[in-house]
Inverse folding.
């Protein structure tokens, strides 16, 4: 492992799963530190800086949700939460605690890897662009806080889905975002719904929606917003 490889902290009370995750993640280019509970994880975080935390929701003592909430009081390190609780309300509770993504158990290791890579890519893009509050492209401006699209100062109405989609793109302009990631970020029921939203959004921001200038397709990968 190289010193500049991303460093992950895996926090789970299942020792077998911790060991398997360490082996798999190391084989895919990550440095990995393990912790069996929130107390041990907190101790590790005092002496080491991590690029992402893989955190189990259900642990003895301090739960993953409680630990994530405490982390968020002082640290913006990305968090991927693992859980055997797959109900929508459980997912919502996890996301409300400040985690960046939520993966139900059992899961395919490859999906875990893709989620980790996706979070790290977003985190890296966010650092580069310093979390913009507004993005401009051509005659258009988008306010991320309000979810408001304007053209030469005039507000262009957006549906809730369109605003959510544009907000995801605007957080990371110039970064290709996959359909699966857009589905998770916007709460769309399926990937095709994202395609429909992209088509509708293009009709509002492109002079020629069939040959988009700003919201472009990256074939085989996803979509990207190119600002001026």
């Amino acid at each position: 492992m190289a010193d500049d490889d991303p460093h992950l902290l895996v926090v789970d009370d299942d020792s077998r799963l911790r060991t398997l995750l360490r082996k798999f993640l190391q084989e895919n280019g990550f440095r990995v530190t393990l912790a069996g509970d929130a107390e041990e994880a907190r101790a590790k975080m005092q002496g080491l800086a991590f690029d992402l935390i893989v955190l189990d929701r259900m642990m003895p003592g301090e739960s993953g949700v409680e630990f994530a909430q405490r982390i968020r009081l002082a640290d913006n390190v990305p968090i991927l939460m693992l859980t055997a609780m797959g109900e929508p309300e459980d997912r919502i509770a996890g996301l409300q605690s400040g985690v960046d993504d939520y993966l139900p158990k059992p899961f395919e290791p490859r999906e875990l890897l893709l989620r980790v890579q996706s979070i790290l890519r977003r985190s890296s893009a966010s650092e580069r662009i310093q979390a913009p509050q507004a993005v401009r492209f051509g005659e258009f401006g988008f306010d991320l806080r309000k979810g408001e699209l304007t053209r030469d100062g005039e507000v262009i109405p957006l549906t809730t889905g369109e605003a959510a989609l544009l907000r995801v793109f605007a957080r990371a302009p110039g970064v290709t975002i996959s359909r699966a990631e857009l589905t998770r970020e916007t709460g769309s029921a399926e990937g095709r719904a994202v395609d429909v939203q992209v088509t509708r959004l293009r009709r509002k921001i492109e002079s020629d929606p069939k040959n988009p200038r700003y919201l472009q397709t990256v074939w085989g990968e996803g979509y990207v917003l190119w600002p001026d």
Remarks:
- Residues 143 and 159 are 15 Å apart (CA to CA).
- The helical segments are 15-27, 38-47, 64-72, 88-96, 109-129, 160-171, 179-186, 191-205.
- The chain has eight helices and eleven strands.
- The chain has a mean pLDDT of 84.
